[in-house]
Design brief:
Order of helices and strands: HHHEEHEHEEEEEEHEEEEEEE
CATH superfamily of the largest domain: Phospholipase A1
Shape: elongated
Radius of gyration: 23 Å
CATH class of the largest domain: Mainly Beta
Oligomer: single chain
Strand content: over 45%
Helix content: 10-25%
Largest sheet: 12 strands, antiparallel, barrel
């Protein structure tokens, strides 16, 4: 998300320059979308799209607008207060909404207030600074709120999410395209997978420390697969998901509780092929709970889900879900940070057999959810088919994918 620079240090020439850059961004986005869709046609186009995006969308030096997201700016301000001004982490609270920073001090200190005000007003992209004094127990929260570390500070339509999206989960809603060599019993072909989806924050309660909180969001996704070896690159299947995730973070611990719906549909051309499968109307609603723990760039997570309503009716309802991830903080090559993950699922329907998804590659841009990024990932999957009515088929595929975050 990009926010316009504030009045501090801006001249009419600066604003004209910002306007021009917005037009450049719109033109660039059109180029990205064109490259993205052309990638579905052939593997070579995918590589070309990735290369163009890396060259034109993410220059070696970070642009000013890339720092303008509230989440990034909040961390930046906190770093200045603690590193440069030597503030104790537990002596204040900072929140930034639409570029305006509110610093809450738990104890009156005019010297600290003056130093912070002077230092923070020099930050490009920060629209305003307000410093207030309020004792830490001023709000007198209830027992449950105190245990969870939630305050009464709230924000409608927050940016990003408190639970980081899962790197290697093939059903994580995101914008992506990948080209894979697909193998199943009696079938082998080049498959293109295309996905559209994102998580949109609805309401957030801030925590008593920076980065903590409780957030309600809505998320939706489309996951489609195409047979590129067919004469007309037939659409095989499309899964549609919509859900309401409730996410919570306290330090390095985070949770995602989600209720969601999925329905699956076969492609028309695929159904009209020489040997079409018998159509199964796969549709269900499910409850999911996943816990995550982070440590020095590493992350482990685990949980499961239960099908509330399902079609076909004989689907067994339980499944387990876990994995491990790594996100590097230092650029490795082309100014991209290394990252990778292993995602494991096991379904009661499949007698608890293991389905494994592995992804590894480079990330360009910002690492935080809700900000612009590009990922170039090699991927491998082995297990029961995660897509549509083919959940009883054992499959294996590997290839290369590109995903975008906004």
């Amino acid at each position: 998300m990009r926010m316009d620079s504030g009045p501090i240090g801006l001249t009419p020439d600066n604003r004209l320059f910002e306007s021009c850059r917005l037009e450049d961004d719109a033109t660039m986005l059109k180029q990205i979308i064109t490259a993205w869709f052309s990638a579905v046609g052939a593997a070579g186009s995918l590589c070309a799209a990735a290369l163009c995006l890396m060259l034109f969308y993410f220059p070696a030096s970070a642009r000013a607008e890339d720092r303008a997201g509230d989440e990034f700016m909040t961390g930046y301000v906190a770093a200045i207060l603690e590193r440069d001004l030597k503030w104790n982490r537990n002596s204040y609270r900072v929140s930034i909404v639409s570029g305006v920073a509110t610093i809450t001090l738990f104890k009156e200190d005019p010297t600290r207030q003056e130093a912070a005000d002077k230092q923070l007003r020099t930050i490009d992209g920060l629209k305003g600074v307000a410093i207030v004094v309020k004792p830490a127990d001023d709000d007198k929260p209830g027992t449950a709120v105190r245990i969870m570390g939630i305050t009464r500070e709230t924000e409608a339509f927050p940016v990003g999410d408190l639970f980081r999206p899962l790197l290697a989960d093939p059903k994580q809603p995101q914008f992506f395209v990948s080209i894979n060599r697909f193998r199943s019993s009696g079938a082998q072909y080049t498959m293109a997978s295309v996905g559209f989806g994102e998580t949109f924050g609805l309401y957030k309660f801030f925590g008593d420390r920076e980065g903590n909180g409780l957030q309600l969001s809505v998320e939706g996704g489309l996951f489609a697969q195409f047979n590129l070896d067919a004469a007309s690159s037939d659409l095989i299947n499309a899964d549609y998901t919509i859900g309401l995730p409730l996410t919570y973070r306290h330090g390095d611990n985070s949770l995602r509780f989600r209720i969601y719906h999925q329905s699956s549909h076969l492609g028309d051309e695929f159904l009209q092929s020489a040997n079409p499968p018998e159509r199964v109307n796969l549709s269900f609603e499910a409850l999911e709970l996943i816990y995550s723990r982070e440590w020095r760039g590493w992350r482990v997570y685990g949980g499961g889900e239960y099908l509330l309503h399902k079609e076909p009716g004989d689907l067994k309802p339980l499944s387990a879900h876990g994995g491990i991830e790594y996100r590097g903080s230092k650029p490795l090559i082309w100014n991209g940070r290394p990252l990778g993950g292993v995602d494991i699922k096991s379904f009661e329907e499949h007698n608890w057999a293991i389905d494994t998804s592995v992804k590894a590659g480079l990330e360009f841009g910002h690492p935080n959810p809700g900000q612009r990024r590009l990922r170039l990932m090699a991927e491998y999957y082995r297990g029961f088919d995660p897509h549509g009515q083919f959940y009883r088929n054992k499959v294996e595929y590997f290839g290369l994918g590109v995903s975008l975050g906004f």
